[in-house]
Amino acid sequence: MKTSRNTKENREHRAPKKKILKRYMQEKLAVTVIVIMLALLALIGVLYHIIDVNNEDYTKVVLTQRSNFDSRTIPYRRGDIVDRNGTYLATSEKVYNVIIDASQIFHDEKTEANYLDTTVDALVQCFGYDRAELLETLKNQKTSPYIRYERRISYDKKEEFENLADEINTANAKAKSKARVYGVWFEEEYKRLYPYNSLACNVIGFASSDGTTGSGGIEQYYNDMLIGNNGREYGYLNDESNKEIVIKPAQNGYKVVSTIDANVQTMVENRIAQWQAETGSEHIGIIVMDPNNGEILAMADEKNYDLNNPRDLSSRYTEAQLAEMTDEEKVDAMSQMWRNFCVSDTYEPGSPSKVLTVATALEENAINPNSYFYCDGYQQVSVFKIKCTAYSKGGHGELSLTETVMQSCNDAMMQIAALTGKENFYKYQAMFNLGSKTGIDLPGEESASSLVYRLETTEPSALATNAFGQNYNCTMVQMAAAIASCINGGYYYEPHVVKQIINENGSVVKKNDGVLVRETVSDSTSRFLRNALLMTVEKGTGSAAKVEGYSIGGKTGTAEKVGRNHKDYVVSFCGIAPTDDPKVLVYVVIDEPHVEDQAHSTFASKVFSQVMSDILPYLNVFPTGDVQVVTPIRPSGEYVTNPDGTGAEGTSEGEGNSGTQNQGEENEAEGAGTGANGETGAEGQEGGEPSGEGVHAGTAGGAAGGNIAPFPYETEEYVPQDYGEDGSLLPSDLPDMLPAGSAAE
To answer: What does pTM read for this prediction?
Structure first.
């Protein structure tokens, strides 16, 4: 039998050996740990970035997943639109939506028994709902926490229901009944309201039902200023079961202060309604503008509609007509109803543009205030015989420059344009912004850029007809702004309908006192034109535009429409008051009056007179009494300094400029005269004597000396012959738009 020995050798042999990690394994382990730590740090960084960037969104998500919280959207209030005096044209009224939480009512059998009938009875009693229909809706959506049963009830109805619910619940509690009105709450919302319904509808526009989008007018153009940002209210239970509420307030939209005067706008719209009722036309537009800064005080046409119900066509179509219309036809009808005639429609302006023709020639020294012209009733331009309004009477004869405006002589305007030259003529058309957008702060402005001639596309016949406002198109706002620059001292202002934008705190965030775009004419040219327009009303074609006691100046227009059928016309009148210091400009355009003989500018002149009679006293433009007007002399060469015939000390002498025939022949004449103390100022022979059928323009001799008046006058009243209504009577064979070519050859 063998036995083991507990020897030292055996003990050493049996003892476990220590395992030592090799160095390369330690290094690998360390690298692994470092990589893991770096990955964790990177992950923490990414998570922090995500939370930091999306904190608010994640907070909303977390809150919406908690069982014990309340959360609601706080709607912003769309900004108000007010007139220049603070009258509300568009505002937002807080209304309430009836919300029913069916999940609370049908939570279990007990809640259904205690809440359903009582709640339904209260809703039916207060709001008059159909009980069976309400019950069916609730039972079909038992698990829904949000049933919007009615929209936009008033604050009074909301208060009425809440008081009724309190009464019922209090009475049942006293009676130890568990029946309660439960699960009904009210969601806040804003409803856009237009207090004056259709007033200035095409200027204001309207907003969508949720108040986020504007359509037409100021509502659309300034939509980004009018809208705000919704707020949010969060309610939840914290770790100690206390209710916490966090509110992020809504940011309301800005208030827009328009240049419109509600009273002036009302007067204008009333006169349009009167015109449409008594005579009527396809279209009528009226602009009232402050010529000194471009502010639009009123802008209207015949297409009125209710801004509170903008899709209602019943005011323009009968029920039978609406029943026959397709959906596309109704959409087109609404688009036409919402269209702003004064900004979006173009037409041939006719004779008001003669103001621009004369202004251009004066600025370029092609003529001067003492120039004379001979009208024989027409101009032969290339193959076209372009007639004047006085063609049937053999022409106007000899006319001073002022009389060419007074009698609206097409022949003289063609001569003036030829003297000006095509380069200057179309340079000034661009300066007057014809063929370009004015920049008015309204959507849908038309430029008419494809409907005007340019220097490179014009020809003699185009230049001739453009001189008196035919064969090119413009918008009402283009012509109004251009003429305003001619009579306000020569300053072209950008027309606009908004003057201020104000934030919630009442601070002005944007202001428009008038944007000066450019200077168009000199002050002396402007003064001459104001005088010529005054005389046009007092003794010329614009007599129907007179307003008793006021100094009124203006220009008539009768433009034959495309087709040249001698039947369809656009008649117009653009005028100012008072002429010595214009405070207001009114432009009236009537498209195809509903009469047999349309070619009468008096239709527009009378509407202009009515509008001016209404608005001038309101605008505190005071009467000047009897308007004393002096007229230019006939080409007799006699000058006086004052209307009463008294002379002035000094001498005057001068030379007449050459008159030019359209065949290119020239005639020259000279004249000189002297004046003695207290005698008639000067006497001279006018230049440019007529020869055969040539067309001539001459400048009267007599550059005045001493203190004589800046323009020649005569003492005894001169009444121009009645040559009929002014207008642009083109032959039927004249094309609508003449071919391109070269003018002034």
So the answer is: 0.74
